[in-house]
Amino acid sequence: MLRQMRHDVWATEKLLERCRSLTSEQLQLTVPGTYGTIQKTFAHIVRANEGYLNTYGVIPQPFIELTASLDEIASRLARVRDAVEQLFKSKELDFDRRIHDERRKMDLELWVPLTQFAHHGSDHRSQIGTILSQHGLEAPELDVWAYATAEGAIADF
Fold first, then answer.
1. Distance CA 60, CA 67 (A)
2. This prediction's pTM
């Protein structure tokens, strides 16, 4: 699970890095079937990550605003990356334990927000990739193979 979450944050960072070269107008691009603009989708990804990690007490409220700039999004994403590492340093967490989540108004097992963290980020990064490609802009490779290569976990022989 830790590697999955590291990949998720890495992929969002790589896509954000790519989108920093876009103009203000390009950051407002969207296409039907996606969450919204590129900028708003990035803020939504990071806001959700903060919420998932808040479940474990490693990120406090308030969460990032959906109108945040790319600089603020990048700063909050760094906070998310640090919180992921902090979460997994605790050997005491039982991810199968059921908790009462007052903020969400539900009972849930602790593995659920972490699994949603990875699924949610992948889904919305894909939407940003669709927006980019539909407007003739290049998107970076963000799959696990690209991450593993960047991490030195695989190499050609």
1. 19
2. 0.95
One-letter amino acid identity for 42? F
* Encoded tokens for 79: 């906070």
Structure tokens at 62: 């308030």
User: Which string of DSSP letters, residue by residue, matches the chain?
Assistant: -HHHHHHHHHHHHHHHHHHTTS-TTGGG---TTSSS-HHHHHHHHHHHHHHHHHTTTSSPSPPPPTT--HHHHHHHHHHHHHHHHHHHH-TT--TT-EEEETTTTEEEETHHHHHHHHHHHHHHHHHHHHHHHHTT------SHHHHHHHTTS----
pLDDT band at 149 (very low <50, low <70, confident <90, very high): very high
Tell me the pLDDT tens digit for each residue of 102-134: 889 999 999 999 999 999 999 999 999 999 999
- Please state, in angstroms and rounded to a whole number, the distance separating the CA atoms of residues 60 and 51: 9
The arithmetic mean of pLDDT across residues 12-37, rounded, is: 98
**b/e map of 62-82 (b: 16 or more CB within 10 Å)?**
ebbeeebebeebbebbebbbe
Tokens of 70: 């790319």
Q: Give the confidence band of 156 by pLDDT, cuts at 50, 70, 90.
A: confident
